Amino acid sequence: MMNTPLYGAVEGGGTKFVCALGNGPDQIVARTRIDTTGPAETLGRVADFLREASRGYRLAAVGVACFGPLELDERSPAYGTMLETPKPGWSGAPIIAPLRQRLGVPVALDTDVSGAALAEWRWGAAQGCDPALYLTVGTGIGGGAVVGGRPLHGLLHPEMGHIPAPRLAWPDGRPDDFPGVCPFHGNCFEGMASGPALQARLGAPAETAGPEHPVWDLEAGYIASAVATYVLVLSPQRLVAGGGVMQQAHLIDRVRQRLPEVLAGYVKRAEVDAAVERYVVAPHFGQDAGLMGAFALAMNVKGET
Ligand code: ADP
Ligand code: ZN
Asked: Are residues 243 and 166 in the same domain?
């Protein structure tokens, strides 16, 4: 037992940190949920859990798939920290350092959506797809891309939720004049189509709108337009769509219906036309995609694959 290497997986969210110890999705030996408070306290609890749970095993590495924005440029002195975020107390907070110090093992960090993309590519609904994209539509909207088996980074990391959104119309033809909820851009994709945007339009949480509500037609239009942008810019071989809002069971079909209309026959591939139901798919890991991504990040740490 002592020599069995195990990995720590941490999915960091604005409301909770979910932690697991194991050897990938099929072999989880312990799991817990920690409420998100301040960064030092939250990460301290994460480290305590992983240390306790790994007693008697060899903890090889820890992967953290976290909300962002994050500094992921290894050449930056701020590598492994949270960049400026509206989440009180978290701007500038080190994420990697406190875990590495307390656990004494390598710690890999990426965004929650890049992690989810990696897990879906490695074990889930996007196996064999290059690039593979993961999109979450929840409290925020974000996307991660796996290109050549690695999460795509560049200047920063992709911020797929904040692309401009077209002005769409309700099914009755009325223009959608909602100003949007993004504090930076107002009516970007996240500002128009996130869970809080739906809630602001409806005056009630999105989960209370029945499947026949006209808002879903509008929502599918915004999502399909964003997906069309990703298709045109990144040419993914598959897109996995998760997050709380996608739990509306009818929504994915509406998006599949709208996508070929938005692309208007320009991209001549069956995947964005007749075979779209195999192109825009639900996550294999459901709400656990980020946590499984954290395992994938840990298992990718140099020398541990
Ligand atoms: P987070 O983005 O905070 O990690 P989720 O992905 O679960 O969390 O997204 C939460 C958002 O999804 C909330 O805005 C909530 O209103 C919305 N949501 C959750 N379940 C549903 C549902 N069944 N239908 C529509 N919206 C939902
Ligand atoms: Zn925005």
From this structure: yes
Q: Which two tokens stand for residue 41?
A: 């306290």
Same domain, 74 and 186: no
Can you tell me the mean pLDDT for 24-40? 97
Model-level pTM? 0.96
- The token pair that represents 87 in the structure block: 């989440």
Pocket test for ligand 1, best of 35, 85, 201, 207 (most atoms within 8 A of CB): 207
Checking if the pLDDT of 110 tops 70, the result is yes
Q: Residue 233 in contact with residue 214, Cβ under 8 Å?
A: no
Q: Kindly state the tokens that stand for 26.
A: 């099929």
Distance CA 292, CA 10 (A): 9
pLDDT tens track for 244-253? 999 999 999 9
| Sheet with 107-111, side-by-side order of all strands | 28-35, 16-22, 5-12, 58-66, 107-111
Q: Which atom of ligand 1 is nearest to the CA of 196?
A: 14
Judge whether 214 lies within some domain: yes
Domain encompassing residue 86: 5-115+287-301
* Closest C-alpha to ligand 1, atom 12: 244
Question: What are the residues whose beta carbons fall under 8 Å from the beta carbon of 179, sequence distance 6 or more?
Answer: 186, 187
CA distance 293 to 118: 6
